[in-house]
Amino acid sequence: MPLRGFEGAYVAADPKAAGHVVVADTDLINSKCGWHSTFDAGKTWTDGAFALPAGFNGCHIDPPSGGHVPSGSVVIGSYGQVYVVFGSARVADAGRDSILVASSLDGGRTFLPASVAVAPPTPDFGLARPLMTTARGPTGKDVLDLSFWGCHRTAQGTACDSAFFARSDDAGATFGSPVVVNKPPGGQNPSQPVVGSDGTIYLTFQRRFADGHVNLLLAKSSDNGATFSESPIDTERSIGLLYDAAKLALDPKSGALYSVWSDSRTGSQQIFFLKSPDKGTTWSQAQLLTPDPAVTGSSRSPSISVAPNGRIDVVYYHTPPETPNLDEVYLESSMDSGATFKLRQVNPKPIDRTLGYSGPAGSLGEVGNHYPPTVASLNSTADVVWSDTAAATPLTQTQDVELRTVVFATTVGGT
After folding, report:
1. Which of 280, 144, 263 is nearest to 208 (CA)?
2. Are 108 and 35 in contact (CB under 8 A)?
3. What angle do CA 356, 322, 245 make, to 5 degrees?
4. How far apart are CA 377 and CA 326, in angstroms?
5. Which of 172, 196, 343, 348 is the most exposed place for a label (fewest CB within 10 A)?
6. Contact yes or no for 283/277 (Cβ under 8 A)
């Protein structure tokens, strides 16, 4: 049986074509980044690995520039193109990753060879953990917005302390010079950018301190990403564990900003939700998700998506207290702009993290604890992907990416 080990899955669902879903992930066994596309709601799949520019050596775990698994997000543009962003390194750059983008003109059946979006600015620098969003451009081409980390070598090892942004106005053919989002003394864990109806760009990032406290900040740009201002969202211990960014989403109906993350203010890692109705000027009090007293244990690695009709979906890993090596995938959905959430378990049976390549929740150095389950929301469905070991044995250690489509019988404001 061929060995399989996949991690770092991101998902996009096409609002114009029911059943059209594209997943991007990393093949840990063969050190490749690739895709899986379906046009019939998962009955059949087309997949492959991205072709890299000359001199690049694949997708590797823990490159010298930092960042762990190099896969990044996948998006479907306004004109039908599909884009995937990920990290890879030139052999000549000694493992210091560049940010690459691959695009598909046929919905994800095939992808053009990837090209370099942003290269390391100096010989001691690497780029890591890219995320992407897209918007309809004024010239008939998609605008692509990227966020990623900057990592550099120090006498103590590697420091990842810069949050970057870069934009393409021509569907990824070219990108502007990367902009440092954070002010000194540094920033980590940039979220995926989101863009308001007025063109304002938003993303979150974190500023970490040696005593364990973390400042969560909102970066905002009103000049197409040329400059950013920053403002505080929250301060708490262990926001996002190590590499687990706070996530950001925008409600297409109201323009409200939503953010989710995990922190340990309750004594164990749990998921919190915040809302800003006024473009990040003020934020609601942090709302603890999984309020059901029957649900105990710890939760981490959330992702968030908002459907065109305004339904909010938050997905994350949950670890029961009595089984610290098992993960469950929880989905919480809100039909009332985040006032209340309904909880459901998505995975059919617990994920055994003693098998596969991701490790138990308590082992923060393992791959899976830094890569969340992700979700793509449409008006009547939420497509959720995660890494699972259901097919694993102690011999094969198989780890696959699983997809489940959750169907909603009610709509926002419905009964």
Report:
1. 263
2. yes
3. 60
4. 26
5. 348
6. no
Query: Are the beta carbons of 310 and 275 closer than 8 angstroms?
Result: no
What pLDDT score was predicted for residue 63? 58
Confidence of residue 156 (pLDDT cuts 50, 70, 90): confident
Q: How many whole angstroms separate alpha carbon 240 and alpha carbon 348?
A: 26
Tell me how far apart the alpha carbons of residues 26 and 175 are, in angstroms, rounded to a whole number: 24
Per residue in 17-71, pLDDT tens? 989 999 999 998 888 999 999 999 999 999 999 999 999 988 866 555 444 566 7
* pLDDT tens-digit series, residues 122-138: 888 888 889 999 999 98
Distance of alpha carbon 196 from alpha carbon 185, whole angstroms? 28
Q: Quick one: 212 exposed, middle or buried, by C-beta within 10 A (0-12, 13-18, 19+)?
A: exposed
d(CA 381, CA 392): 29
- Asked if 407 and 381 count as a contact pair (C-beta separation under 8 A), the reply is yes
The span from the CA of 393 to the CA of 177, in Å, is 47
| Listed residue (291, 300, 307, 285) closest to 340, CA to CA | 291
Tell me the pairing of strands 351-352 and 326-334: antiparallel
Residue 96 to residues 152, 246, 264, Cα–Cα distance (Å): 9, 25, 33
Spatial separation of the C-alpha atoms in residues 65 and 153, rounded to whole Å? 8
β 21-27/32-38 pair status: antiparallel
Tell me the C-alpha to C-alpha distance, in Å, between residue 356 and each of 69, 124, 200, 238, 267: 15, 33, 41, 26, 29
Indicate the DSSP class of residue 5: B
Residue 84, amino acid: V
Mean pLDDT of 7-16: 95
Task: Output the furthest CA–CA distance in the chain (Å, rounded).
Answer: 60
Q: Provide the β-strand partners of residue 168.
A: 144
CA–CA dist 290, 297 (Å, integer) = 10
**Could you tell me the two tokens for 320?**
């029961």
Q: Which two tokens stand for residue 230?
A: 């920053």
User: Rounded CA gap, 168 and 130, in Å?
Assistant: 14
Task: Provide the token pair at 136.
Answer: 């309809």
Beta bridge partners of 381: 407
DSSP string, 163-211: EEEEEESSTTS--PPPEE-SPTT--B-PPPPEE-TTS-EEEEEEEE-TT
User: Is 0.90 surpassed by the pTM of this model?
Assistant: yes
For residue 313, what are the CA distances in angstroms to 86, 316, 392?
24, 10, 29
